[in-house]
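Today's session is about reading a structure prediction critically. Students often jump straight to the picture, but the first step is always the sequence itself: look for stretches that repeat, for charged clusters, for runs of hydrophobic residues. Only then move on to the predicted structure, which in these notes is written as discrete structure tokens rather than atom positions. Here is the chain we will use throughout the hour.
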Amino acid sequence: MSIQTVGVIGAGAWGTALAKVCARAGREAILWAREDEVVQTIKTHRQNSLFLPGVILDPAIHPTRELADLKGCDLILAVAPAQHMRSALAAFAPHAPDAPIVLCSKGVEQGSLKLMSALAAEALPTLTLAVLSGPSFAGEVARGLPTAVTLACAEAACAERIAEAIASPSFRPYLSTDLIGAEAGGAVKNVLAIACGVVEGRGLGRSAHAALITRGFAELTRLAVALGGQAETVAGLCGLGDLVLTCSSSQSRNMSVGLALGAGKSLDEALAGKRSIAEGVASAPAVAALADALKVEMPISRAVKRLLSGETDVDAAIAGLLSRPLKSEV
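Below is the predicted structure for this chain, in token form.
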């Protein structure tokens, strides 16, 4: 069955950008928003002025506040924030069509320590699941700048069908069957981006920044493999690629939080005025707890968790990482 209409759950910056991706690929997009203001500004001005200002949205994008309006869609993109994904999918379940659902949010749920695919499997057990992840800033994707991502689905034929439906010359999905690897990379890189922001904000130099990305990637890989993912997957777009992007630009919401912390601001000050969610702040304690449960060594992620919770300060966190015992790189 061909995919003509795509339902998008979540009208933040990334959900809105993905709706535009679908429209650019020739699909109709039903964009569900929690905020009535978002629906009205899109209808009136063809812009999501709250989360993605300055981007004109195609007539093929139809905003709604009713999840029931997604009932006839041929594909669903779930883009609710990670810590709200469970409730969003539960609310959507009575209206869910018999269509694949692509999980587009990155994080680990606090409490359950589950990835988004596990939440979706509980809420929508009969649907085919896929994961979309990779180096992608919403504003750039919305403006049609070249972007490549990982699209993971256990059913290869379904992955091909989804890719054909959303691909365009400026948005290129690369296929994988490893959902866990694709999700783990996206979840951990947000935590590591906060650490990279701290290094940058503290003025510790490019050498320290490069070292942190590299050792952070080792942490990310260890956790992905412990969860059942493949090291080869996180060496691609959804792991290494996403990590490099998120840890290298102040456009990253997570890195910008770290920049503020490194410059001496409190967490409340770092988050002040931000409408979009920095997923790494919520995921850090869950990632650290998951590493403990799986007995995976993740010192950078644990240091971020302790910094965000107030258990340590920036200087003590940096000193703790620098004083770790010397060891083999591999």
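Discussion point for the tutorial: The first strand starts at residue 5 and ends at 9.
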